[in-house]
C-alpha cells in the first residue's frame, strides 16, 4: 500500500489523528522492512498479487464446509506458486526464491491463504531441511523438483505419543545392507506421526524423523526423505497409511495429518547425510554434534519470531484504528462521548503492544544475524556458536509467541464485542498466533532449555570460564541497596542485568542445595523448574530490552523517529519492570521509591504517545487486505463494513429460514 496521502478518504476521527504526525512514517516502515528497497519490494509484491481477482474470496471461509475451505485455500496456494513459476513479469519484479520466501512468510501470504496455507510446510520446513541437512548431491537431486513444485513435502516429526521428547520418538528406520535400503516402521499406535502441516492430503513427500538402526544399534533420530504418495495418481504408497487429523482451533486449511509405516522401504541415499552418514555396509559415521539433526527446528524458531510480531502488527493496527473511531461513555459528564483511545486503560492495552513489535523486531534481527554466523561457521566445521544460538532461538521463540499471542488477545478484548466477530479477523489472527506457543517446541519446554543454558553458564562463570555474549552478564553483579539509582534507559538495562543475574545465582544455588541434600540432579531440577522457567523468561526479557536500547541509541535515525522510539523503548521497559517489580525489589536493583517514579512515568509516557498511536500503526504499513478486518481498514469506515459483512451470512438470504418451519414453528405452535 502506498504511503497515506492527505487526499485519501478517511473518517473524520482518523483524519484528525493523522493531522500532526511527530515523526517520519516512511522511515519507520523502512526500518521494520529492513531498508527502503525492501519496502519497495514488499509493496510491489503486494500490489502484484492483491490486484489479482483469483485471490478474492467471494464467500467468507467461515461459511464453507471443512472440505471446501481446504480446496479453496489449496486453489489459491497453487495459483500463487504457478504465478511465480510461469509469470515472467513477477519474476522480474521480485525474483523467484526471495519472492516465494516473502510470500509464504509474510503478511501477504497470510492474506492470500487465510486459515493456513497447505503448502506452507513445503517452503518453511521441507526445503530448508534438504538445504540444511542434505549433502550437495542430495540438494542437487531434490531441490530443483521441490522448488518447481513437482514434488510437495512436509516435515513429519511429532508422533501421537511424543512431540516434545524427541529421544522418545518410536518410528524406526532400520538399515538393510543386503538391499541398501532403510525399512520404515511404526511399531505402535503412539508411533503414528501426528500434526505435520500439509501431510493429510497435500504432500507426496516428507522429511521423516525416525530412530536410525544400523548393525542392530539405535543411533538416535535422523532425517529421511520419504515418498508418501504416487507421483502420478497421488494414491498413498503401499506400506504408507496417511490422512488428516480433523478440525483444529485454527489453521484449519493446513491439512495437518497422520502417518504410519508398515515395512516401507526407501533407498539408502534418502537419508539426509550432511552431518551423519550410513555407509553401504551399514557403518555409521557420527556427526560433529548430534544435535545438528535438530537444525531445521532452530531455523524455523528464528523465523517464527518474525512471524509473531507481524501477527501482532495486524492485531494492534486493527484495534488502534478502531479505538480512534469508536466512541463510548463519558469522560466528563455531559461532554461528547470520547474516542475510547482517550481512556488511559485503553492506551495501556494498546500502546505497549506497539512497543512490543519494535522490541521483538530488534531482538529477532540479532538472533537471525547470529544464526547466519553459525551457518557460516558450520561450513568451516565449528560448532562453537551452537549452544548460544539454540538458547537464544528457543528463548526468543517462546517470548515472541507468548507476547504476540497474549498481545493479540488483549487487542481482541480491547475491541469489546465487535472483536469477537469473525469479520474483525481478530479471532483468526489469535488462533494462528497462539499455535506458535505450542508448535516448534512447546514454550515451557523452550524456557527449560534456556534455563539449562543459564545454569550451565553460571557454573562456568563461577569457575572463571569465558561465557558467550548473551550470558556474559551472569558474572556476579551485586546491586548496591544504598546508591541512588540511574533510571535512564541504560540504567534500567543495568537494573535488569543485576536483577536477573541475582535470580539465576539464587536458583542455581537452590538447585545445588537440593543436590547437596542428596537429591538426584534431575529431581532437584524438577523441584526448581517453575523458578527456572521464570529465570529464563527474565533473561530473554532483559535481552529484548538490551537490544531495543542498543538499536534506538546506535541506529542512524532522524530526531523525530529517535524520539518516538526512545519513548516506546522506555514504555516497554517500564511496563515489564512494573509488572515484575518483585524481581527488582528483592535484590535491590531498584527501590520502592524508584518503582513509584517509574509508575508515574508510565502515565506520562502513555499520554505522550497517545497522539501518535494511529500514526505509529499506519507506519507499520499493513495493507487493508492483509488486515482483512471490518474494524481496522485505513479509512475507518467500520460500521458500514460490519453491516455489509453481516449481509453475507447465508441465514440472511431469506427472511425466514427453512429451520424455522422444521423445528421452531412446531414448538411454538404445539399448544394450538
Ligand atoms: C523459507 C520460508 C521461511 C518463512 C518463515 C515463516 C514462518 C511462519 C511460520 C508459519 C507456518 C507454520 C509452521 C508450523 C511449523 C510447526 C512445525 C513443528 O512443530 S515441527 C516439530 C517441532 N518439535 C519440537 O520443536 C520438539 C521440541 N523438542 C526438542 O527440540 C527437544 O526434544 C529438546 C530440545 C526439548 C530436548 O532434546 P534432547 O535431545 O532431549 O536434549 P537434552 O534436553 O537432553 O539436551 C542435551 C543437550 O542438547 C542441547 N540441545 C538440544 N537441542 C538442541 C539444538 N536444537 N541445537 C543445539 N543444541 C541442542 C541442549 O542444550 C543440551 O546441551 P547441554 O546442556 O548438554 O550442553
Ligand atoms: C498447529 C500445529 C502445527 C504443527 N505442525 C507440526 C509439523 O508440521 N510437524 C511436526 O512434526 N509437528 C507439528 N506440530 C506438533 C508440535 O510441534 C508439538 O505439538 C509440540 O512440539 C508440543 O509437543 P506435544 O504436543 O507432544 O506436547 P507435550 O510435550 O505433550 O506437552 C503437554 C504439556 O506437557 C508439558 N511438558 C512436556 N514435556 C515437559 C518437560 N520436559 N518439562 C516440563 N513440562 C513438559 C508441556 O509444557 C505442556 O504443558 C504442530 C502442532 C500444532 C499445534
From TrEMBL:
Ligand binding (FAD): 158, 197
Pfam families (alphabetical): ACOX (PF01756), ACOX_C_alpha1 (PF22924), Acyl-CoA_ox_N (PF14749)
CC terms in the record's Gene Ontology section: peroxisome
Active-site residues per Swiss-Prot or TrEMBL entry: 440 (proton acceptor)
Residue ranges annotated for the Acyl-CoA oxidase C-terminal domain, each copy included: 491-669
Places the protein is found: Peroxisome
Record key words, sorted: ATP-binding, FAD, Fatty acid metabolism, Flavoprotein, Lipid metabolism, Nucleotide-binding, Oxidoreductase, Peroxisome
Entry's Gene Ontology BP terms: fatty acid beta-oxidation using acyl-CoA oxidase; lipid homeostasis
Molecular function via GO: acyl-CoA oxidase activity; ATP binding; FAD binding; fatty acid binding
Pathway as given in its UniProt record: Lipid metabolism; peroxisomal fatty acid beta-oxidation
Domain Acyl-CoA oxidase C-alpha1, first and last residues per copy: 294-455
All residue ranges annotated as the Acyl-coenzyme A oxidase N-terminal domain in the record: 24-152
Reported cofactor(s): FAD
Family: Belongs to the acyl-CoA oxidase family.
Protein name (database record): Acyl-coenzyme A oxidase
Name of the gene encoding the protein in the UniProt record: ACOX2_11
Amino acid at each position: 500500500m502506498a504511503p497515506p496521502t492527505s487526499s485519501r478518504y478517511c473518517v473524520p476521527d482518523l483524519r484528525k489523528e493523522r493531522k500532526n504526525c511527530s515523526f517520519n512514517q516512511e522511515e519507520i516502515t523502512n526500518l521494520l522492512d529492513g531498508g527502503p528497497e525492501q519496502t519497495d519490494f514488499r509493496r510491489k509484491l503486494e500490489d502484484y498479487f492483491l490486484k489479482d481477482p483469483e485471490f478474492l474470496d467471494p464467500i467468507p471461509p467461515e461459511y464453507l464446509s471443512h472440505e471446501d475451505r481446504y480446496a479453496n485455500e489449496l486453489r489459491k496456494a497453487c495459483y500463487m506458486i504457478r504465478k511465480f513459476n510461469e509469470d515472467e513479469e513477477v519474476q522480474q519484479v521480485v525474483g523467484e526464491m526471495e519472492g516465494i520466501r516473502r510470500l509464504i512468510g509474510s503478511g501477504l501470504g497470510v492474506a492470500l491463504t487465510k486459515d493456513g496455507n497447505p503448502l506452507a510446510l513445503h517452503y518453511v520446513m521441507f526445503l530448508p531441511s534438504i538445504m540444511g541437512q542434505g549433502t550437495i548431491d542430495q540438494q542437487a537431486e531434490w531441490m530443483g523438483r521441490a522448488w518447481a513444485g513437482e514434488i510437495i513435502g512436509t516435515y513429519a516429526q511429532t508422533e501421537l505419543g511424543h512431540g516434545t521428547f524427541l529421544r522418545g520418538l518410536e518410528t524406526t528406520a532400520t538399515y538393510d545392507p543386503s538391499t541398501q535400503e532403510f525399512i520404515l516402521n511404526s511399531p505402535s499406535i503412539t508411533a503414528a506421526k501426528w500434526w505435520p502441516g500439509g501431510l493429510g492430503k497435500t504432500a507426496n513427500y516428507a522429511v521423516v524423523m525416525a530412530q536410525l538402526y544400523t548393525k542392530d544399534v539405535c543411533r538416535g533420530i535422523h532425517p529421511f526423505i520419504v515418498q508418501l504418495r504416487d507421483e502420478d495418481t497421488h494414491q498413498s504408497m503401499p506400506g504408507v497409511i496417511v490422512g488428516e487429523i480433523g478440525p483444529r482451533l485454527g489453521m484449519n486449511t493446513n491439512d495437518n495429518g497422520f502417518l504410519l509405516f508398515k515395512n516401507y522401504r526407501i533407498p539408502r541415499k534418502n537419508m539426509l547425510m550432511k552431518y551423519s552418514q550410513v555407509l553401504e555396509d551399514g557403518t555409521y559415521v557420527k556427526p560433529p554434534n548430534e544435535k545438528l539433526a535438530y537444525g531445521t527446528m532452530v531455523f524455523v524458531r528464528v523465523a517464527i519470531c518474525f512471524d509473531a510480531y507481524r501477527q501482532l502488527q495486524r492485531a494492534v493496527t486493527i484495534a488502534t484504528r478502531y479505538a480512534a473511531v469508536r466512541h463510548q461513555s463519558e469522560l466528563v459528564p455531559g461532554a461528547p462521548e470520547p474516542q475510547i483511545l482517550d481512556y488511559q486503560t485503553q492506551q495501556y492495552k494498546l500502546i505497549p503492544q506497539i512497543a512490543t513489535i519494535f522490541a521483538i523486531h530488534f531482538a529477532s534481527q540479532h538472533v537471525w544475524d547470529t544464526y547466519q554466523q553459525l551457518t557460516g561457521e558450520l561450513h568451516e566445521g565449528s560448532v562453537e556458536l551452537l549452544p548460544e544460538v539454540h538458547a537464544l532461538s528457543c528463548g526468543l521463540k517462546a517470548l515472541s509467541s507468548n507476547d504476540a499471542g497474549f498481545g493479540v488477545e488483549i487487542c481482541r478484548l480491547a475491541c469489546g464485542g465487535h472483536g469477537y466477530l469473525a469479520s474483525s479477523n481478530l479471532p483468526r489472527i489469535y488462533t494462528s498466533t497462539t499455535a506458535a506457543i505450542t508448535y516448534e517446541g512447546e514454550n515451557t519446554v523452550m524456557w527449560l532449555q534456556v534455563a539449562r543454558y543459564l545454569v550451565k553458564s553460571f557454573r562456568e562463570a563461577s569457575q572463571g570460564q569465558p561465557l558467550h555474549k548473551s550470558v556474559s552478564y551472569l558474572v556476579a553483579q551485586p546491586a548496591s541497596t544504598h546508591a541512588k539509582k540511574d533510571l535512564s534507559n541504560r540504567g534500567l538495562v543495568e537494573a535488569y542485568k543485576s536483577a536477573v543475574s541475582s535470580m539465576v545465582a539464587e536458583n542455581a544455588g537452590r538447585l545445588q542445595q537440593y543436590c547437596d541434600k542428596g537429591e538426584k540432579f534431575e529431581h532437584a531440577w524438577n523441584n526448581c523448574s517453575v523458578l527456572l522457567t521464570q529465570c529464563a523468561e527474565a533473561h530473554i526479557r532483559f535481552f529484548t530490552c538490551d537490544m531495543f536500547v542498543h538499536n534506538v541509541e546506535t541506529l542512524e535515525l532522524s530526531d523525530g523517529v529517535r524520539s518516538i522510539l526512545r519513548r516506546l523503548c522506555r514504555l516497554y521497559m517500564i511496563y515489564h519492570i512494573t509488572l515484575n517489580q518483585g524481581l527488582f525489589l528483592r535484590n535491590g536493583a531498584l527501590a520502592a521509591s524508584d518503582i513509584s517514579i517509574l509508575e508515574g512515568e508510565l502515565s506520562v509516557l502513555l499520554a505522550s504517545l497517545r497522539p501518535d498511536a494511529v500514526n505509529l500503526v499506519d507506519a507499520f504499513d499493513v495493507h487493508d487486505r492483509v488486515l482483512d478486518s471490518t474494524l481496522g481498514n485505513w479509512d475507518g469506515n467500520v460500521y458500514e463494513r460490519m453491516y455489509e459483512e453481516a449481509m453475507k451470512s447465508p441465514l440472511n438470504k431469506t427472511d425466514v429460514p427453512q429451520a424455522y418451519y422444521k423445528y421452531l414453528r412446531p414448538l411454538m405452535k404445539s399448544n394450538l
